[in-house]
Amino acid sequence: MKIEKVMVVGSGQMGSGISQVLAQTGYQVVMNDIKKEYVEKGIAKISKQLDREIQKGRRTEEEKAALLSRITISTELEDAKDVQLVIEAATENKEIKLGIFRKLDEVAPENAILASNTSSLPITEIAAVTNRPEKVIGMHFFNPVPVMKLVEVNRGLATSDETFSIIEDLAKEMKKVPVAIKDFPGFAVNRILIPMINEAIYAVYEGIASPEGIDEVMKLGANHPMGPITLADYIGLDTCLAIMEVLYEGFGDPKYRPCPLLRKYVEAGWLGVKTGRGFYVYN
Ligand code: CAA
């Protein structure tokens, strides 16, 4: 099967990044979200990013126009009727994702692959709500998608070798490095990264140091490009909490208990960069 047209479901920071890289690789992209204005916001984000590259002399106005012309706007999952692949990057909520996959299974061509960018939900469970579990797979990108090299290729119990190799090849074509991961809570990166962030938030909660102090020690003492508290704000505190809950429930191990301070910030709606306030304030 040759992939030519891809639907990306969700036009937030991950969905827009994935759409940008697909379009710059030469694919036709159907960018889908529940509201047209959300997709337009995603396209504006891509456009801004491309303008930066033009300013740096790495891209021309013509290339930008050609790239954007490969992206079409969609607010109906029915628009998946003529795509060969769907990459779902909707909000990290199990019921929402399962609903999307049930619908996609009805409307996408029988041989289309249904991939999820989920950062921690089980691929096996998502696959089980479809009639094509062998064609369901995790394709997990990292933020910012145009910069980060890794794609975790997460295989559910029923994912076929053929599906895996098509997605592995696609990731390479997108100039990413795919790594095969088994379907267990948090996969690999988030199983390691998010408990580290949770521990950093515990350190703030216990008064070990301020958010700035914790960020400073991890940047200067462990050579992290971004401190863990800044990174938490950047990922979204709701996403960090959702992943901790998945680890806690999935392994049944108290070492994964979410920090009460993280929970409190999410209750306050202080979700990080996307809401203008998390551990830091953004303008
Ligand atoms: N989109 C596209 N490009 C971007 C970008 C964005 N949002 N943000 C930065 N860049 C590019 C810049 O244009 C710049 O490119 P050049 O060097 O080619 O000019 C490059 O990235 C470096 O940017 P800056 O110099 O502005 O800043 P920096 O050196 O601090 O790098 C960073 C920014 C790449 C984001 C770096 O801070 C970093 O690696 N941070 C950690 C990111 C990380 O850990 N991501 C994973 C999050 S976990 C996740 O995504 C998975 C999940 O499921 C939760």
Name of the CATH first level of the largest domain: Alpha Beta
Radius of gyration: 19 Å
What name does the CATH topology of the largest domain carry?
A: Rossmann fold
Find the CATH superfamily of the largest domain: NAD(P)-binding Rossmann-like Domain
Mean pLDDT: 97
Principal-axis shape? globular
Query: How are helices and strands ordered from N to C?
Result: EHEHHEEHEHEEHEHHHHH
Which sequence of strands runs across the widest sheet? 3-2-1-4-5-6-7-8
Between the first and last Cα atoms, what is the distance in angstroms? 46 Å
**Beta-strand percentage?**
5-15%
Q: Helix count, per DSSP?
A: 11
- Low-confidence stretches are none
**How many structurally independent domains?**
2
Task: Quickly give the CATH architecture of the largest domain.
Answer: 3-Layer(aba) Sandwich
Organism: Niallia oryzisoli
Pfam families: 3HCDH, 3HCDH_N
Protein name: 3-hydroxybutyryl-CoA dehydrogenase
Domain 3-hydroxyacyl-CoA dehydrogenase NAD binding: 5-183
List the helices and strands and how they pair.
Elements: E1 5-9, H1 13-25, E2 28-32, H2 36-55, H3 61-69, E3 71-74, E4 85-88, H4 94-107, E5 113-116, H5 123-128, E6 136-140, E7 150-155, H6 161-173, E8 177-182, H7 189-205, H8 211-222, H9 228-235, H10 237-251, H11 260-268
Parallel strand pairs: 1-2, 1-4, 2-3, 4-5, 5-6, 7-8
Antiparallel strand pairs: 6-7
Helix pairs in contact: 1-2, 7-9, 7-10, 10-11
Bound molecules: acetoacetyl-coenzyme A.
